[in-house]
Specification:
single chain; 230 residues; alpha/beta; Nucleotidyltransferase, domain 5; 2 domains; 5-stranded mixed β-sheet; 32% helix; globular; tRNA (Adenosine(37)-N6)-threonylcarbamoyltransferase complex dimerization subunit type 1 TsaB; transferase
């Protein structure tokens, strides 16, 4: 199976092509950025596809991170994935950023529970907890930092995500300490691709995964314009 993976959910713009039969990435590229994803993504995809020496019609599916993440970043990646999938006549699948963060740790066959954490601002985090084998312990949610820490009752965890250090800095000194802290600005695009290969397109649509109402909202039309469109 040939997978094009896309990630623009957080502080990176990334794309990769995975060949599951060969068990390797044919091409990948990542640029760390807090803004500018819209301008960077399509040229990056073109370079990755050229490096992999593939036509879009040769792909089996397109995988994209669907959140939690920035409102603008998610729209960029999901729109690109859905547009390319429609043009190529291939399915598009969506993967959460929390699961993509966790996959890299679960893939190392470690026994510690994994807490994926993303900064939701205002002293809150998006988080999810899975066991070392990947089974879910605490479903994805948003909570104040201290409540997210209190939800970890499964032993010394492995913290991963762009809020991993935020949790580590607030971690109680009198409890089991994290076994590792991986403060990554964005998930590994390779794991986005592997999760995309395993996902069921019918149950993992390429649409935004919001755990709260987005901070950014489309601009409100002025009254005259609203009247013209009504």
């Amino acid at each position: 199976m040939l997978i094009l993976a896309i990630d623009t959910a957080l502080e990176a713009c990334a794309a990769a092509v995975l060949d599951t039969e060969a068990g390797q990435l044919l091409a990948q590229e990542q640029l760390l950025m807090k803004r500018g994803h819209a301008e960077a993504l399509m040229p990056m995809i073109a370079r990755v596809m050229q490096s992999a020496d593939l036509a879009f019609t040769a792909l089996d599916r397109i995988a994209v991170t669907v959140g939690p993440g920035s409102f603008t970043g998610l729209r960029v990646g999901i729109s690109a994935a859905r547009g390319l999938a429609l043009a190529a006549g291939k399915p598009a699948v969506g993967l959460t950023t929390l699961s993509a963060y966790a996959a890299a740790i679960v893939g190392q066959s470690r026994s510690a529970p994994v807490i994926s954490a993303i900064d939701a601002r205002h002293d809150h985090v998006y988080f999810q907890i899975v066991a070392g084998d990947g089974s879910q312990l605490v479903r994805p949610g948003i909570a104040p930092i201290d409540e997210a820490i209190a939800a970890s009752q499964f032993g010394a965890p492995h913290l991963v995500g762009n809020a991993a250090k935020i949790l580590a800095d607030r971690w109680p000194k009198d409890g089991p300490q994290p076994v590792a802290v991986d403060a990554q600005p964005a998930p590994d695009i390779g794991w986005v691709a592997w999760l995309g290969a395993a996902a069921n397109p019918d149950t993992n649509p390429a649409r935004p995964f919001y755990l709260k109402a987005p901070d950014a909202k489309p601009a409100r039309l002025p009254p005259l314009a609203q009247a013209a469109t009504s």
